[in-house]
Amino acid sequence: MKNIPKKIMVNKEQVAHIAKLARIKLTEKELEKFQKELSSILDYFNLLEEVDVLETELTSNMAGNFFREDNSRPELPELIDELINSAPQKKGRHIKVKAIF
Amino acid sequence: MSKDFSAVELTKAFLNRIKKEDEKISSFITVTEKTALLQAKEIDALISKGKKISFLAGIPLAVKDNILVEGVKTTCASKILENYIAPYDATCVKKLKELGAVILGKTNLDEFAMGASTENSAFFPTKNPYDLTRVPGGSSGGSAAAVAADLCCYALGSDTGGSIRQPAYFCRVFGLKPTYGVVSRYGLVAFASSLDQIGPITKTVEDAQIVFKAIAGKDNLDSTSVEYKFSIFNFQFSNLKIGVPKEYFIEGIEPEVEKIIKQAISQAEKQGAKIEEVSLPHTKYVIPTYYLINTSEASANLARYDGIKYGLSKAQKKDLLNVYLQSRGKGFGSEVKRRIMLGTYALSAGYYDAYYLKAEKVRTLIKEDFYNVFKKVDVIFAPTAPTSPFKIGEKIANPLLMYLCDIFTASVNLVGLPAISIPSGLQIIGKPFEENKILEIAKIYE
User: Fold this and answer.
1) Which domains does chain B have, with CATH numbers?
2) Average pLDDT, consecutive stretches of 10 residues, N- to C-terminus, chain B (446 residues)
3) Test mutation, B341, B356, B366, chain A, max A CBs within 10 A
4) Every domain of chain A and the residues it spans
5) N or C terminus: which one in chain A shows less Cβ crowding within 10 Å?
6) What is the CATH number of domain A1-49?
7) How many CB pairs under 8 A join A and B?
8) Do B324 and A23 make contact, defined as CB atoms within 8 angstroms?
9) Do A53 and B358 touch (CB under 8 A)?
10) Can you tell me the distance from the alpha carbon of B162 to that of B407, in angstroms, rounded to the nearest whole number?
11) Is the full-model pTM beyond 0.90?
């Protein structure tokens, strides 16, 4: 990593990899644009490097967890139909999904 | 009760104004004329029967288009939800409907509430009613512009890092971001769940108070919502201690903005309040911390847009992965893609500790800054934004420049505090659950 100048935080291959993880198809032009933008934004985020957090707890842990009973919440059949209807592809009361392979 | 005009007349007056005036500012994505008139008729019928009605009955409002209104399109100003019809009401909408509110329509925003200018809307930018060449702020730019242009009595917005307060300032109205958990997020399209909060944008402080009271409270459908106790603050300015953070008046702030805020501070001092300089030492880390948490949470929340359950669906090949890639590639705009990818990166193996976890820890330090200050003072006075309304197109090409707009507002969301922005651009930040105190203080600036 040391040979890479600080500004280039991510290269084009990395951006393509992130886009694939994020399930977003990018055009070649977008790849180039995001490579520059993400690099400069991530470079700015590195400002946090100088903060010492060795003794610091996580905020999310301080807020605590919220629990509820594990009960099902019955909905009106009309609402269920409506939810199924908003699926782009369906067959009867089933949502159609393409094959994985 | 004397009758000057009916609910139907009032609703028609606003609908006519929208028809005539919204061409100029483009604040609405959807206008729900038919249902608005039906809602108004129902209220008039109740009144003529002599039934008791609420303060908000028959009063027309606009709703930001990332908050669900049953049977109405909720687009989030995104191509991916362009034709999505909400199957149920958000809790805040349900509460307002039960009080007889009249919903005029859905207002424009930055796509999925990601932005500070409403230029990121996939459909059209909204313009500032006071200067059509300038932005109304964002992301609740449509709501703030509609209130400012008298196209509704009040509006609902959502605030993840300043999205109610900054457009309220840019459009010279009031915007209240409540304490995290006070208003149910059920039916608000999730963006960054530990930061998002719904609140009112209004013409007066009293209106903000009324709407806030109507939408606040515990909701079983949002596990982070809490019971809210309304207390009346009969405070005197002579007993009030106001903190002014020294870090907020150093770099990047427009001199004119600084002048206005200093004037507001001296006005409070004249009323007898004690002004104290305070320090929020982690201020320079707020933007990176906020954007790491914001994008990480967004990347997880927006995973639901898969082209399978609802929304835009595109495919070039027969496999499932292709549906995801194409639907999201075509459906999301630049800023949404940028944030999902930043978040995906910050959460990915090898980077999680250095980015996401680090940001969550710095968030704790930012929280401690505020809690330390609140040991000494009652409220904090700060600017809402570092600049006055900027020109359309001025910042859109540089995402980082746009992110810096949130410098004075995002920390409030990281800590979960309540804050109100007043038309001059002063932001009053309070202790948790002390909405009524900041609202009462805001009244001296009306």
Assistant:
1) 7-215 (3.90.1300.10)
2) 86 98 98 98 96 95 98 98 97 98 98 98 98 98 98 98 98 98 97 97 98 96 90 85 94 90 95 97 97 98 97 91 97 98 96 95 97 98 97 95 94 97 98 96 94
3) B341
4) 1-49
5) N
6) 1.10.20.60
7) 149
8) yes
9) yes
10) 9
11) yes
